[in-house]
Amino acid sequence: MTRLICLLLLISATKVKAQDKTTLPVAMAVADYQLPVGTQSVYTIQYSIQLADRVMPDSTVFTDTIPSKSKECNYTFNEQGFLVVMQVDSFDEKGKVITSTVTRYGYGKEGRLRGVVHYEDGKMTDSVYVGYNRRDEADEQVYYDKKGRKEGRVQYFYRNGRVFNVKVRDEDDMLLSFIRYEYDAASNVREKEIKGNTLQYESAIRYSYDTLANGYVQINEYDYAGAYKIMGMLGKVLDTSGRVVEITVADSNKRVVASSTFEYNDKGLPISELTFTMYKHDYSYLYEYDDNGWWKTRRKFEEGIPISKTHRVVELYKDTASRID
Q: Within the chain, how many helices (H) and strands (E) appear?
């Protein structure tokens, strides 16, 4: 789904820096990765695939499949099913590590996410502390650099269980920006208004929601600079299971600059992805499953030509069967 993420970034990259840290960290669980209950760890290794023609002495041409390791991922979960460590290593064509990143998630006794620490190439780069109010709502994020020095703070204010104001502050607790949310009757975000440190209006994001005839939901996100000038639009269509089946990106002239459609199999795994930007990209996926029905091998194709292969190993806690029963 890398292409999907890139399309989202076409819009989000235009936001001011102060907003980058306003999203609360999410406590990811095994269900978010479509993993079975009781998963202890998941290991994946991805190979990039290149095709090369080889001419035999009799002039017969064979096409060789040449794999090269491109990425390794390790995910570790606690017994409550929450992600505690995520390690991602990327490799060059010769198999040498380019980058190695580790993210560690810390939880309090009550199981709430309390902190996130990031490492790169074995060295800590930054960390985040998450605070909660008396109603167990996350009401604060505090950011620290690699030496533990405070870099900033984000405060969240709630009304009827929903965030309606956000204040972004610097390391000296001075206000950098103020964000206001409005909701519709169904509790969907209708508008996100961003103001500067003197509460001057800067920009806004407005949302529209429509239920289609097939039960799918169309969500459009309009990025405004000033009260009326649209800078861009991100449209998403979700199926009845909440999966993204279509993405459309438009520019300030309402011209579509990128679009993608996605299809899934009966296990909820993506099987095809068709993307149009300046060029057409047609991707498809094939899976192999183990005896439990979990995928163990995924092959990715572009225009029917193999471009990558991923192997996955899922390890369960020893007492999983007894806990499930």
A: 2, 20
Q: What is the pLDDT of residues 149-206, one digit of tens each?
A: 999 999 999 999 999 999 999 999 999 999 999 999 999 999 999 999 999 999 999 9
Tell me how long the chain is. Answer: 325
pTM of the model: 0.82
In eight-state DSSP terms, residue 101 is: E
Which residues of the chain fall short of a pLDDT of 50? 1-19, 322-325
Retrieve residue 15's tokens.
């936001």
* Bridge partner residues of 250 (DSSP): 233, 256
Strands (E), 226-266: 229-238, 244-250, 256-264
Q: How far apart are the C-alpha atoms of 81 and 78, rounded to whole Å?
A: 5
By C-alpha distance, which of 30, 28, 63, 29 is closest to 49?
63
Q: How far apart are CA 18 and CA 138, in angstroms?
A: 19
Which residue's structure tokens are 């001011």? Answer: 16
Write the single-letter amino acid at 86.
Answer: M
d(CA 221, CA 176): 24
Which are the contacts of 56, defined by CB distance < 8 A and separation ≥ 6? Answer: 62
